[in-house]
Amino acid sequence: MSLLIAVLFIKRENVISISLAIWLYLYLLYDLLMLGISVNFVEYPLEIPILILTCINPLDLVRIITILQMDNAVLLGFTSAFFQKYLGNTNGISLCLSLLILWTGIPFYIGYRFFAKRDL
Fold first, then answer.
1. pLDDT for the residue 101
2. Residue 30 to residue 56: CA distance in whole angstroms
3. Which of 14, 22, 63, 84 has its CA 20 to 30 A from that of 94?
């Protein structure tokens, strides 16, 4: 994602500020959003929506991979316990790794295309 941001914005100040804003959103605000959803919709089955929302956040995917490899899914809470219960350790880790490859590959490819079109 950093290559994509660096190619899209010319000024280095903008690149750093946008990168930090994306990191802050993915690290703090997204977790607060998921906590709010899980608190407000307690009476509904939330396994599948939380799984989908977790797959959208690459930082959560890295956390889940780390916790699943240590076999301490209780430490991370609801999402990793769901990963361990329904997908198992190997399937959960492979799903997280494949989604992280997409999170890495797609922005890299888009950034590479923009960089190739640039007139240097």
1. 94
2. 10
3. 22
Say which DSSP state 11 is in: S
The answer to whether 3 and 112 have CB atoms below 8 angstroms apart is yes
Which tens digit of pLDDT belongs to each residue from 20-44? 888 888 888 888 888 888 889 888 8
Q: What is the pLDDT of residues 2-24, one digit of tens each?
A: 778 888 888 888 888 888 888 88
Residue ranges per structural domain of the chain = 2-117
Structure tokens at 29: 């605000």
Q: Which distant-in-sequence residues (6+ apart) come within 8 Å of 23 by Cβ? A: none
101-119 burial, b for 16+ CB within 10 Å, e for fewer?
eebeeebeeebeeeeeeee
Cβ contacts of 82 within 8 Å, gap of 6 or more: 47, 50, 51
